[in-house]
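Exercise 7b. Backbone tokens:
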């Protein structure tokens, strides 16, 4: 089940299309996020699915259970392979999301974001009035995710071992090749180290999208990780 997911953080469909010309024989697993989705809409997702790409629709839903349930039905109908919600919405919301997805007979895996990597302990305490640490809330939210019956969480590869112990899958960004720039990522791992740590899926953006030879960079990820 391990796979490499390419984070398609492009401005619009024509940039994505240009990027995809690098893949003539393989159909990689693609992550479509909210920037692209809000511009190009569900039509783009349908098109890519029809062309045989696997899709991780990264929209991070967070609302009352009823709204999330209905939104998930629409996501399920798109036939995507992986999607996500915020664990901070609570167990009831996560269960409602899962029920919505299942009603569409979708095989889509549902994962939860625990804490955003942009949140630090100070923000948690001073802005959000949460006195527990980031690490403790991440573990607690992951347990809630399991209680709600979801498949797994988005986390750093470095957290993958404890997530695996909980019986959940981990979808891990922050991937770089050896000796490559970390850009704005604080906690990075190579594809082979992510494999060692037990990640289920790695999400790779710039290491592939900004490579001189895109296909070679993608194939290197696959060789190291799968
Ligand atoms: O270019 P890079 O490989 O750093 O891209 C990583 C991708 O994973 C981006 O789409 C980013 O938004 C996403 N992501 C992340 N950290 C998280 C959650 C998602 O880097 N905690």
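Sequence design result:
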């Amino acid at each position: 089940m391990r796979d490499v997911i390419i984070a398609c953080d492009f401005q619009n469909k024509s940039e994505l299309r240009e990027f995809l010309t690098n893949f003539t024989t393989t159909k990689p697993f693609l992550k479509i996020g909210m920037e692209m989705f809000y511009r190009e809409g569900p039509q783009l997702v349908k098109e890519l699915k029809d062309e045989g790409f696997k899709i991780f629709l990264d929209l991070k839903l967070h609302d009352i259970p009823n709204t999330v349930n209905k939104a998930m039905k629409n996501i399920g109908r798109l036939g995507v392979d992986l999607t996500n919600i915020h664990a901070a919405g609570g167990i009831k919301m996560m269960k409602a999301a899962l029920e919505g997805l299942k009603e569409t007979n979708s095989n889509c895996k549902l994962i939860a974001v625990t804490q955003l990597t942009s949140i630090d302990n100070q923000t948690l305490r001073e802005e959000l009035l949460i006195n527990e640490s980031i690490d403790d809330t991440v573990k607690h939210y992951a347990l809630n995710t399991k209680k709600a019956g979801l498949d797994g969480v988005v986390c750093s590869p470095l957290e993958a071992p404890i997530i695996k112990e909980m019986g959940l899958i981990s979808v891990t960004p922050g991937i770089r090749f050896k000796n490559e720039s970390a850009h704005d990522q604080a906690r990075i791992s190579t594809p082979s180290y992510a494999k060692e740590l037990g990640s289920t899926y790695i999400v790779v953006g710039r290491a592939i999208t900004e490579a001189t030879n895109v296909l070679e960079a993608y194939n290197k990820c696959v060789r190291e990780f799968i």
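Instructor comment: Residues 3-225 form a domain with the TIM Barrel fold (CATH 3.20.20.70). The radius of gyration is 17 Å.
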